[in-house]
Amino acid sequence: MTLKLRTLSKHISDSVRNIVRNSWMSFAAVSAVSITLLLVGGMLALLFNVNKFATDIEQDVSVRVYIDLTTDQEQRDELQAEIQKLETVESVDFSSRDEELENVISGYGDSFDLIDEDENPLYDVFVVSTKEPKDTKETAKQIDEMPYVARVSYGDAKADRVFKVTKGIRNVGGVIIGALIFTAIFLISNTIRITIYSRGTEIEIMKLVGATNWYIRWPFIIEGALIGLFGAIVPVLIVWIGYYGAYNNITPFLSGSIYSLLSPNPFLWELTALMVGMGVMIGSLGSALSIRRFLNV
Amino acid sequence: MIKMKDVVKVYDNGITAVNGISVHIEQGEFVYVVGPSGAGKSTFIKMMYREEIPSSGKIEVTGYDVPQLKHNEIPYLRRQVGVVFQDFKLLPNLTVYENIAYAMEVLEKSPKQIQNRVMEVLSLVGLKHKARMKPAELSGGEQQRVSIARAIANMPRVLIADEPTGNLDPETSWEIMELLEQINAQGTTIIMATHNKSIVNEMRHRVIVIENGRISRDDKEGGYDFEA
Predict the structure, then answer these.
(1) Span B1-80+157-228: which CATH code?
(2) Cβ separation B105–A10 shorter than 8 A
(3) Distances (CA, A) of B45 to B41, B53, B161
(4) What is the predicted ipTM?
(5) How confident is the model at residue A115 (pLDDT cuts 50, 70, 90)?
(6) Arithmetic mean of pLDDT over chain A
(7) A195 Cα distance to chain centroid
(8) Distance from C-alpha of A30 to C-alpha of A32, rounded to nearest angstrom
(9) Is B83–A208 a contact, with Cβ atoms under 8 angstroms apart?
(10) Is B118 exposed, middle or buried (0-12, 13-18, 19+ CB in 10 A)?
């Protein structure tokens, strides 16, 4: 399998010649890879950000303690003192039900304006921060058992829900991506098969004079890899433009919250590497398949 | 050099092409393989360079246990066995020079080595002056000489010729035979399947007659009279 430099350059020029010679088939195969990678890239960008979102929630260490509606001022102070006594607790902030309503209105829009102050369905809340994120769950559990507490919520529950959504996207995406990759591999192996036919005599002669199997295989594998590589160019460009567009539009809405999108700088490079890698892999796999079947070397 | 023992070849369609052949061929021999069409000549020859695998029996060629070779070992057997066909099998888009060089390039020889050897074999087959021409511009005999030049470019120890004069007129056939004699004189074993009666009778060499998948006659210096 060792390749001399001279041989490698010959193989590369051979494969480029084949691509040009069968330009329409090559174009079809490149397009198939492009469409596949575009959808895979978009899907991955979405998936990674939903994942990031879930992680952000997990990182949010605050516990929200909803105070029983019948609790009076004195009892509330009592509860606050008790929470403060917990070793894991960093701070306890009070947020009245009116403040909570304002938060909701500013966060979700004017439709909540309709709610009259007297009909406010919300609870008074203690926002409890723990010293360490890992203590959140245990702290929430302890507070839940205290008197005057209606219920307790913390990041975990929300994170669980987001992870469930991630899983759904991943499953549906996985099926779509799998089908697309299959189609792309099929198209590439067809393209390579045609170049194999058109080089039938050459292959026959190569085998007769004793060229090694790898020597015969390389140009076709390189051809497949090049088709995969060319197929990655357009979807990578689209993903870069699209992600920057989305990032610049969404980020202002998230400022001040605990959430943020993955920063384009490392993320897009990683995604590019992944997409190019997949393109090359799909291409070489497709050609390896057709060589195996049609060369029998 | 070449040893076969009890070789049998039954094709998938049930036809028995070779039915128990045992033979020894020494280094440097010139052997004609003759017999009626469909008698098993081609199968006999193809098994020597692992184009066909025998159903049973032993074949040894230049030290290789041919039927037992793994796929990745076959190329190294083929480098010891040059093959020439009736229909030349030249690449039409390459010049004469490039056609011969091609056989050496695929074995990753250096450009210097390739250049020297190609010029050497071109002068041996007498086509130095036509090195830049395409196969289509050559006569049949010239094309066959190019294919012989290609077959010996990598200096195989055996040259197998499957009816090399089958498509050529008598005069050109003699030129090809003289060339093969010359190559044989340099020590290359030559195995030639042929139907050409006059060649076998004029240029006397060992003759192996194959009929119904068996060797019916094996004569040193024999002639072509198996039909009798």
Answers:
(1) 3.40.50.300
(2) yes
(3) 6, 11, 9
(4) 0.85
(5) low
(6) 84
(7) 36
(8) 5
(9) yes
(10) buried
- A15-54, pLDDT tens digit by residue? 898 888 888 888 888 998 899 899 889 988 988 888 888 7
Residue A1 scores a pLDDT above 50 = no
Quote the pLDDT of residue B98. 94
Helix (H, G, I), strand (E, B) or coil at A91: strand
Q: Is the dihedral of CA A81, A85, A89, A91 positive or negative?
A: positive
Contact A215 B106 (CB under 8 A): yes
Q: Which of B72, B78, B91 lies at the smallest CB-CB distance from A209? A: B78
pLDDT in tens, B1-57: 899 999 999 999 999 999 999 999 999 999 999 999 889 999 999 999 999 999 999
Query: From the candidates B108, B121, B143, B150, which should be mutated to test the interface with A, based on the most A CB atoms within 10 A?
Result: B108
Q: Is B89 touching A (CB cutoff 8 A)?
A: yes
* B89 → closest Cβ in A7, A201, A211: A201
| pLDDT higher than threshold 60 for residue B227 | no
Question: pLDDT higher for A24 or B130?
Answer: B130
Tell me the C-alpha distance between B7 and A219, whole Å.
Answer: 37
What dihedral do alpha carbons B149, B151, B153, B154 form, nearest 10°?
-170
- Strand-pair partners of A67: A124, A149
Residues A191 and A22: beta-carbon distance below 8 Å: yes
Q: Where do we find the tokens 């072509």?
A: B224
Q: Name which of B72, B82, B83 is nearest A213 (Cβ-Cβ).
A: B72
| pLDDT at residue A297 is higher than 50 | no
Per-residue pLDDT at A105: 74
**Cβ–Cβ < 8 Å for A223, A23:** no
Instruction: Tell me how far apart the alpha carbons of residues B205 and B207 are, in angstroms, rounded to a whole number.
Output: 6
Distance in angstroms between the alpha carbons of the first and the last residue of chain B = 31
| Separation between Cα atoms, residue B191 and residue B198, nearest integer Å | 17
A209 touches chain B (CB under 8 A): yes
Calculate how close chain A gets to B204, using CA atoms only, in Å. Answer: 29
- pLDDT value for A114: 64
Burial class (CB in 10 A: 0-12, 13-18, 19+), B209: buried
pLDDT in tens, A205-237: 888 889 888 888 889 899 999 999 999 999 999
Residues 6+ apart with CB under 8 A from A36: A177, A180, A181, A183, A184, A231, A282
Q: Do B108 and A205 touch (CB under 8 A)?
A: no
**Which domains are assigned to chain A?**
5-57+160-295 (no CATH), 62-131 (3.30.70.3040)
Give the three-state DSSP class for A6.
helix
Tokens of A5: 């430099």
What sign has the CA pseudo-torsion A56, A58, A59, A60?
positive
Q: Is B79 on the interface with A (CB under 8 A)?
A: yes
Would you kindly state where each structural domain of chain B is located, as residue ranges?
Answer: 1-80+157-228, 90-155
